[in-house]
Structure formats: structure tokens, C-alpha cells
Amino acid sequence: MKETQEKEWTRYEKIYGEEAPKKLYKRLNDEIETNGLLHVLRHGITDRGVKLKITSFRPETTLNEKTIKDYQANKLTVTRQFAYSTENHNTLDMVLSLNGIPIVALELKNQFKGQSVENGKKQFMYDRDPREKIFQFNKRILVYFAVDLYEVWMTTKLDGKNTVFLPFNQGSNGAGEVGGAGNPENPDGYATSYLWEKVLHKDSLMNILQRFMHLEVKKEKVIKNGKESVKTRSKLIFPRYHQLDVVRKLVEDVRQKGSGENYLIQHSAGSGKSNSIAWLAYHLASLHNKDNESIFTSVIVVTDRTVLDRQLQQTISSFDHTTGLVETIDDKKTSKDLRDAINNGKRIIITTLQKFPVIYEEVEVNKGSRFAVIIDEAHSSQTGKSAKKLKAALADTEEALREYAELEAEIEAEQLDFEDEIVQELLTHGRHKNLSFFAFTATPKEKTLEMFGTKQPDGTFKPFHIYSMRQAIEEGFILDVLQNYMTYKTYYRIAKNTSENPELSTTQGVKAIKRYQSLHPYTLQQKTAIMVEQFRNVTRHKIGGKAKAMVVTASRLHAVRYFHEFKKYIKKKGYDDMDVLVAFSGVVIDQNEEYREETLNKTKDGKRIKESQLKEAFHSDDFNILIVAEKYQTGFDEPLLHTMFIDKKLSGVKAVQTLSRLNRTYPGKEDTFILDFVNEAEDIKKAFQPYYEVTELDKEIDVNLIYDTRTKLRNFKIYNDQDIKKLTKIYFKKGKQIEKDLGKIASHLIPIIKRYEELDEETQYKFRVTVRNFNKWYSYITQLVRMFDKELHEEYIFTSYLIKFIPKNSAEKINIEDKVKLEYYKLEETFKGTIILESSSPENVLKNPDNVDTGIKPPDGQDSLENIIQRVNKRFEGKFTEADRVIVEGIYKKTVKGNEKLRRFARNNDEEMFNKSIFPDVFEKVAQELYMEQMNAYSKLFEDRSFYNAVMEAVAKEVYKELRRE
After folding, report:
1. What is the pLDDT of residues 575-596, one digit of tens each?
2. Which candidate, 243, 308, 280, places its Cα nearest to that of 437?
3. What is the sign of the dihedral through the CA atoms of 248, 253, 254 and 259?
4. Up-side HSE of residue 916: CA atoms within 13 Å toward CB?
5. How far apart are CA 398 and CA 391, in angstroms?
6. Has residue 162 got a pLDDT over 80?
7. Interhelix angle 935-943/919-933, nearest 10 degrees
8. Sequence-ordered list of residues with C-beta below 8 angstroms from that of 918, at least 6 positions apart, any chain
9. Dihedral sign of CA atoms 147, 153, 156, 158 in order
10. Is 299 helix (H, G, I), strand (E, B) or coil?
11. Which of 316, 395, 306, 388 is nearest to 353 (CA)?
């Protein structure tokens, strides 16, 4: 202090005289007790109006000599065998202190002496009393390392036997590379030397204290004995090695190259991505080049996660108490707020992609404005219209204009007005020197890899930095969701239930039969019984009795019917420790009744659960199972989720994202379980394999494929150059477009649509697919390169309008429910065990297409219902015994058919009276008649009374509903 704050110290001495040092230590201790050591190191202390710094951090620039001198004046010391107690003679192997304050403790273990990192952990847990001043949380030592010759482990809080140590290793092949847990061999010394060479040397440690470590304060609702309370938990976050590594490598690359580069970061779930993004945003916002110039005007974080919004703000405000440094454009703010934040040069802006299309023309990109765009969960939406508008808003097109002028040197100055507009659009294509993209994802697709990945000398594309799923699993940050996998196969036989034999579309007919089978009450009952009993036998005993399950269904109608089936089964069995919720969007109409998520989900005391309350309700002790249709399959974070039941076809990234809902760790959560009714183990392996270690792309796209697609389009002879010119002249008119202009465009397209309508159905389909491919590929290619092809761009605008006006040949939905019956049904377990993923698999390499395949399906033929049924049944020939016959269907048909007397009973009585007093006699008579006809199939009915009652209840409900219909 005397060296760096002479004036302040003189003033302090005037106040306290000889007592000054003693008063300083007291005040320092009081401030640490109140605000914690990390805060005091960053912000210093104040005593009777005198502000004193406890340490000086390294400035971002070299412009101020005084701040550089102050930084160099810090006293960093190493003490061996550090004695810390007045109660005993214990010592720590090594302590690092900053200006006399102990901040890092190390226990060093040596395999040559028969000890390992485990001995170091145990020492911290059992031989160090957390009540000692030095070990109190955030009062003195901020981080503890247990180190041996091969591994490093770390914690920021000693809590006796409950102390949680995290691995602080690089990964088996080094940081940012493909590999598993552990550290690579070091030919020049110890495998753990990176700890003192890259982390604990002065500049690095000071940088971590200033710009990485932070105090995370979380408030959680706790319900105990029916009473709700809020519990506050504080945690000191020290970056894991890969987080430190990725931020530093990215910052260094940008410092060297400046703006204009793209980076893909493939970090698995469990990598601490939210913190990595927060640290990167903060570093980039204050990054200067070697000439002390700020590299970025603003850092824009594009995300849809409110969790990240909060975390970014909390993390950054703990480093920098500048108000308004982070501007969040959330649901409560408009696109205009985003425009103003960009135009006012806010340092860090958090927003969603959807806000850009509204304001892209109103952003004023001043000459020299440069932007770092951090994308949370980069995927194919980055090639969509909103992503293009983001670039249109932020791109400095001056360089592109120079490039264009060189190419078009001969163009006359008096061009047509609307061509200036085209040039404006063309200039936003490709990469821009003032835009840097940092894309984070665990599951990159081909387009993501080519847009943001690093091109290798051999022409392939790879991520800039990797923290693999394999490493996250091996280090224990996520669970392996493929460890306990069970698959069932469904076998069924359909029979025709009508004398009619109509001609149907083969594809639609097969789909209708499969849908009929999957929604059949018997099918749903069988699967529901398996799921509920599996939950009761296995899941509910996991995570100390708190484990939950998710049911993934094929459609919203499936979700609604499953919900009713679960409720009915749970009630019938008297399972009062189970309850179920459902999640789907919009309204589902089933048998003339309307269902909404909010009307179905109710608390134990009958109150409706709003959509916004669903996650919280599911997390509570009142509910154990959540049935979903498209909702909560991505981005849903519920660590108590242990089991997943899948009744939906899943593939590729969708399969990985859905099953990964289970991988979150939680105290007492040791494994997960998946029961899959639809997918085979091999399909799931194929989906996961590319994302297990690193995902690569084999080559860049051939941009000239777009011209091949255009030629295919022109061969249909639907439109010509004149049609395109007419439309684009309206589109590129001066001033804003009005309703009248859209009317002109629509009128202009009428004769073109007539030509389209003259084509046969198959050619119409081919044309539609080719137009969509042309638009999709053009959008993608122009994100990568500047084509500077005005004719091609005009054709893209023309076809973008055309596809909106072309009438779709919507496939007629076939209803066959009254024409078929489910005759046999069987569920059979086909796989049980671990799906094992391979290291360095060739399946990790994604492939860019060699041609723009229009993906034309073969024409759909017509066939009779009987033949379509035979085609479906053929797959399961010889699979059934009489025990697999679906007897519910037989009883139902025989009961309803022509029974006028029963119809009158149904019309004149309520459901309870009908089910309990009238129907049992009818049911018994019909069941006996059928038993006499087919003893094998119906014997089970009379052998098992509970089965008899269950079938009777199911049939009664359906019969009552049917007979009351007009």
C-alpha cells in the first residue's frame, strides 16, 4: 500500500497514527467478513473516507504507466509447510499468498511414495477443520488443489466429508482436443506441470482472480412439511481447465487476427457452457490489440435461454460494477430497444435472433464498428432468415463494395434504381471483416461446421475447441444415458372389418393403419401398464425416492390419450404416491372434446397449473411423470429426471437432444434408464456416434451446385426471365413496400401458378421440392461466400414469393377406424443393456452432398384396403399365438352391433348406472358366447378376475360413448 497508494496511506496514518496497521487489519477483516475475500480483492476497502486497494490488477492497455507499476508491485509468495492454526501443529504442503493474504492451498502427493491425489482429497476433507479462519468459505483461501504426478482435483469450499472436488485435468489428449478424462503424457516433465506453468504463475492467477472467479448466489424454493421457504446458496466458481483454456485461446486468436473470423466451440452438456459464454463475453468486451485499440464495439450474445441472461448479468456484475454494462433485450423489451442498444454502442447485449428481422434496416453501423456475436446453441436456424437479417444489420459492407466495384468496373454510373437495392442485399452475403462469430454447440450439423468451423489443410472442417461428451461422462459431469437401455418391438395384425374394399393411396393407407394401431386403446393400455409398473419397480426407488420420468409421445393426440390412460391406471391400482402431468401446445380435439394443457394439469387440491408453473410443479414432490409432445425435448433442465419412456421415432440430433434430458447429475443420482417402444439400439447408436468425441465435416460445399439446381428449375418451363424481372422491379422499388405492392406481386404470379396447375401431380411435387431446395441452398451458400450474381439473387427473390403462393397438394387424411380392427397384438423385449459408443469412429465425419439431390419420392400408387393390410401384416407373419389375440375388440364389436335395447339403456341412463348396473350382464353373456367360439383366445378372461374386470371397464366406457352418439 505504501508503494502504490502513498497519498491514501499518508491520509490513513494521519487519522490513526501508530495504530494505522492494526486498524487496517481490523477493517480489512471486517470487510472480508461482510463481503467476502473475492469482493475485497477486487474492490478494496473503505475506512473513514479513505479508499484503499488490497491488490492492483493488470490493466487492459499499456497506456497508463502508473497502473502497470502498481500491478508489478503485487507481492506473490510461495510458502512450503504452511502452519495455519493456533490449535495444532498441522501444516499445508504449499500455500500461495497475494500481498500477505493466503489464497491458494495445495496438497502435493507422490506416487513414488505410495500416495495419490485421493490422499490429498482425504486430507482436505478429514484433517482440515472448516471452522479454522483460513478454511472458512471466501474468507481466506479461495481454491484448494490436490495434486499428484498424473492428476489435479480442485474445490473452492471445504465442508468435511461433504466436500465436492472437481477434476482440474486437461483431458487425455490435452485441452481443447478429442479425448477422455485425465492428462496427456508430458515428454518434458510432469503430466501435471500445466498447473504451475499455465494456471498458477503470476499473470495467469491474477487474471483468474480479476476476470474468472465469481461468487454465484442462487435462491431455491424448498418445500418441507408442506411449508415453502427460500434458501440461498452461495458458491465460489473457479473455472475448470477447459473453460480457462477455451476463453484464453479464443481471446489470443482474436488479439492476433482482429475481427472477421468465425469460431465453432463443440462443448458437451456438463461443460459449464453458460459460464464459458459469460467469461468470453466479458473478455471480448474489453479486449484491446497490441496498439491498445479496442477490438469490438459491442459483444452480442444470441440466446433463447433466460437462465443464461441471468447468469451473464450476475457473473459480469461481480467483475465490473459499471451499471448498464450488460443490456438484456428480453421478452419485456422490443426490437427497438435492441436497435437503440446497438446504435448506442452498449458493451454487452443479450438478445434473441427473432428480434433482428424487425430492425435490421434501422441499425446505424458506423465506419469502424465491429461486433463479436456469441451464439448459444448454434444450429440450422443460423442459416435462416433471422440470421441473415442479423448480418444485414451489423455488417460493414465497405470492403464488400470495393470487391464488387473491382468485379463490375465496367458498370455505368446510371444503373437502374432498383439495382442499387440488389447491390445492397448482395453486399451482406459472405463473411465480413467487422463481424466475428463464436458459436457454441454440443451437436454441430454440416452447415454449422462449414459456417463456423476451422478449415483444415486437407479441406475438412473441425471445431476450434472441443470438450467432448466422452470427456464429460468420464469426468462425471454428465451421466451416460445409454448405459441402461431397453427396447421393445411391437407386433400386430390388422383385420378388415367391413365388406367394402376401397382403393386408397398406399403410403397414406399404411400410415393410417400404423396410426390406428398406435392410438388403439388396447395398445395404450398395454404400454401404460409396462411404464407405470417399471416406474414403481425401478425409478421411484432412485435418487432417494425423488426420481422422475418423462414419456415422449409421437403426437399431441397421443399425449392426451396417454395422460387419460395413466390417470385411469394409477387410480384403478390405487397408487396414491404417483401423479402425472402433460405438456403440449395449443388445443387437441379428440372425439369432439377439446383439451388444453392448462385444463388437464391440476394440483392435488384441484387448482389449474399454468404453463409457466409446469416446470416448478413437476419438480415438486406431488408429480413424478411428465408426458410430452414436442415440448421439453430440448433445453429442459430437471436433474431429478431419471427415466425416459419413448414412444416416438427419433433420429440424428433430435435423438441426442431428447435423450440428453436425462444426463444432468444430482446428489444420489447414479444412473439413468430408457425404455424405448419404437427405436432400435442400433439406430440410437448411429444418432449419438457423431457427437461422442468430435464432429467433423468432410469437405466444403460446391457452391456451383446452386446453378445445377437452377437449371433443373428452368427445365419445368413454369416461368422465364421476364417473369422474374417484373416481380423484382416491384420488390426493389424506391421507398417502403405497401399493401398495394403485395397485391401487384400476387397478380403477377397468377399466370405462373396456372402453368403450374396444368402439370400432373407428380411433376408438381418435383417442382415444389426443387424450388425449396434452390431457396434453401442459396440461403446457405450466400452465408458462406459472396456470389455477386444479380440474376441468381433476383431468381431467389422471385422463387421465395412463388413458393408461398403455390397451392400444396395436401395429402388427404384417410380415416379407416371403422373399416379395420386390431386382431393380434404383442410387445416383446428385444434389447437390454448398454449401447456402447466407439472412439475415433468414421461415423464422426459428416458429409457434404456431392449434388443437390431434389429428394423426389417415387410416385405414390393406389391399392385396395385389403392389400394394404396384407402388406402391413406380412412383416409379422408367424409371430402370434392365440394368447396374443386382442379380445377387447371382439367383445366391443359384438356388444354394439345392432343392439337397440342397449342403445336405449345408454341414452336413458348416466354412465355410472350403465357401467355398474346394466352392462355387466350383457358383457358376461357376450364373453361366454365368444369363449365357446374361440376357447384359447378367451380362456384368460375367466381365469383372472382382475383381467375380466379391467376388460369389462374398458369395453363399457367405449360402448357407452358409441351408443350415445347420434
Report:
1. 988 999 999 999 999 888 899 9
2. 280
3. negative
4. 4
5. 14
6. yes
7. 140
8. 902, 905, 909
9. negative
10. strand
11. 388
Q: Give the other-Cβ count within 10 Å of 797's Cβ.
A: 18
Beta carbons of 894 and 930 less than 8 angstroms apart? yes
Neighbours of 746 (CB within 10 A): 13
User: 228: which strand partners?
Assistant: 223
Closest to 709 measured CA to CA, from 851, 500, 611, 607? 851
CA distance 845 to 586: 39
Output the nine-digit C-alpha cell for 446. Answer: 454440416
CA dihedral sign of residues 292, 293, 294, 295: negative
Q: For residues 892 and 817, what is the distance between their CA atoms, to the nearest angstrom?
A: 14
Written as nine digits, the cell of 194 is: 500445466
Q: 769 burial class (0-12, 13-18, 19+ CB within 10 angstroms)?
A: middle
User: What DSSP designation does 843 have?
Assistant: G
pLDDT in tens, 642-676: 999 999 999 888 999 999 999 999 999 999 999 99
Which residue type occupies 947?
Answer: F
Distance CA 143, CA 41 (A): 14
Q: What pLDDT score does 669 carry?
A: 93
Q: Which residues contact 288 (CB under 8 A, 6 or more apart)?
A: 60, 61, 255, 294, 295
Burial class (CB in 10 A: 0-12, 13-18, 19+), 229: exposed
Give the Cα separation of 653 and 379 in Å (integer): 10
CA distance 848 to 450: 9
* Cell numbers at 111, concatenated: 506416487
Residues 551, 677: contact at Cβ < 8 Å? no
Cβ burial 76-110 (10 Å sphere, 16+ → b, else e): beeeeebebeeeeeeebbbbbbbbebbbbbbbbbe
CA distances from 492 to 206, 319, 679, 820, 888 (A): 67, 63, 16, 13, 14
Rounded to whole angstroms, how far apart are CA atoms 265 and 253? 14
- Among candidate residues 828, 837, 838, 834, the one with its CA nearest the CA of residue 484: 834
Query: Do residues 148 and 109 make contact, with C-beta atoms less than 8 angstroms apart?
Result: yes
Q: Please answer whether residues 466 and 176 qualify as being in contact, where contact means their C-beta atoms are separated by less than 8 angstroms.
A: yes
pLDDT of residue 499: 74
Three cell numbers, residue 660:
440428453
Amino acid at 75: K
For residue 810, the SS3 value is: coil
CA distance 234 to 140: 16
Backbone angles phi, psi at 143, to 5 degrees: -150, 140
Longest dimension (CA), the chain: 111
| Cβ contact 790:421 at 8 Å | no
More confident residue, 220 or 342: 342
Which candidate, 831, 558, 569, places its Cα nearest to that of 676?
831
Closest CA to 285 of 295, 275, 274: 295
- Are residues 898 and 889 in contact, defined by beta-carbon separation less than 8 angstroms? no
Selection from 180, 177, 697 nearest residue 444 by Cα: 697
C-alpha closest to that of 471 among 442, 502, 429: 442
N-to-C CA span, the chain:
92
Within 10 A of 217 (CB to CB), how many other CB atoms are there? 11
Count how many residues are written for the chain. Answer: 966
CA torsion sign for 614, 619, 620, 626 is positive
